[in-house]
Amino acid sequence: MAVGTMTTAGRARRAAYSFALLAGCALAPLGAQAQDAAPAAKPVVLHCPALLDSVAGKMLGQSSVVIQGDRVTEVVSGYVTRPEAEVVELAGETCLPGLIDAHVHLSNEFTPTVYSDMLHFNLADWVVRSTVWAKRTLLGGFTTVRNLGDSHYETVALRDQINKGWVAGPRILTAGPAIGSTGGHADDGDGLRMDLQPDVGAHDSIINGTADAWKAVREHYKQNVDTIKIMTTGGVLDLSGSVDNSQLTEEETKALVAAAHEYGYIVGVHAHGAEGIRRAVVAGADSIEHGTFMDAQDMKLMKEHGTYYVPTIYTGTYVTEKAKGNPHAYPPAVQAKALLVGPQLMKTVGDAYKAGVKFAYGTDAGVYPHGENWKDFPLLVQVGMPAMYALQMATINAATLLKKDKDIGSVAAGKYADIVAVPGDPTKDITLMGKVDFVMKGGVVFKKGGAEQVFTSTAH
Ligand SMILES: [Zn+2]
């Protein structure tokens, strides 16, 4: 069943049709639970010694969270119970809203053999692995992710099968394949021998001109994506020479953003170079991803336009360290770019925070192993952010960027029962975010006392 934003009449009609086919399945705007995976009707009460209020940016003391089905019904100060409720004691824990990663790639991971795997693997191989990566992400405490780029819309299928209860994973908002230009970061033919470079076009998410821009977005709509990802500059891990050159014209960028907004999609923009960032911001894009070479003018424009910055900070450090540690870690063209980005990104993120740019949490997991999505937190604190702000980035800020803050991003009555816990106060020790030992998504417990709970699909 669809997860999408469904803001247009057409999408609403499409949703209504598919829900009619799934009689008895409640209409829900994000990550609806299948009836087969539905939790028992008995209420559940979580006793949390401390609870993060992500909206107010403060830590609350002893709190009870009352859950009925897949939603929170009450948040009460102190420990209470309710008739027939199952009480879950989370002694020693701090409860937080389910974490949100606004930038992942669940159908890929840069394992040591990835560049050759890309030539040997069929799509099915990646899809099978994506179910494992999705589960690792969920068990790491990330109950919602925005997937910003796949190969052939395979994460649309992953999203749907998670929502139907066949496999365990986070709520997914997926962009399908990223949209870019010929020879750009989104063009998979880069750096390959010429007979492995098909003449790709808008149908394959490669555009040249504004008509192609509209066609590519419409192709994505046709495949039932939730969001759009575009690439206005070069990138680190493709086999071309530049990380920061501009790869979409101002007109193409405006057309892509206009088309996406027309269909109710938010737009995440992969951009390292200052000019590509500027083009995206003035076009009205919703978030800048990476932003490595963002300059002062970009930061000023982002504040004026309310553009979010999703910094993927650990990925920058990760690829630089990997390249430093092994001269053959990446192909030569990638190696040179990888050495550049880590320190530059650390500096830019610190500067942008000081300049007052708004941030949402996003990691680029897939470039590094899925499930380690928490690793941005310590680096964000290292460049000068308060731990509380870093936690808000991964909860209410990311929910607001994704326009899902009515359903996720805080622990509150009416929202999904997406709740995680860590053993202690992460505002005092941010590395506790790597020790998530309780994970509930939509009222279903996937991890408890640090142990993965057996997930048995009863979907049929
Ligand atoms: Zn990415």
TrEMBL record:
This is Amidohydrolase. Gene3D superfamilies: Metal-dependent hydrolases, Urease, subunit C, domain 1. PANTHER family: ALPHA-D-RIBOSE 1-METHYLPHOSPHONATE 5-TRIPHOSPHATE DIPHOSPHATASE. It comes from the Bacteria. Residues 96-444 form the Amidohydrolase-related domain. It holds the Pfam family Amidohydro_1. Residues 1-34 form the signal peptide. Keywords: Hydrolase, Signal. Transmembrane segments: none annotated. CDD domains: Met_dep_hydrolase_A. One of its GO terms (molecular function) is hydrolase activity, acting on carbon-nitrogen (but not peptide) bonds.
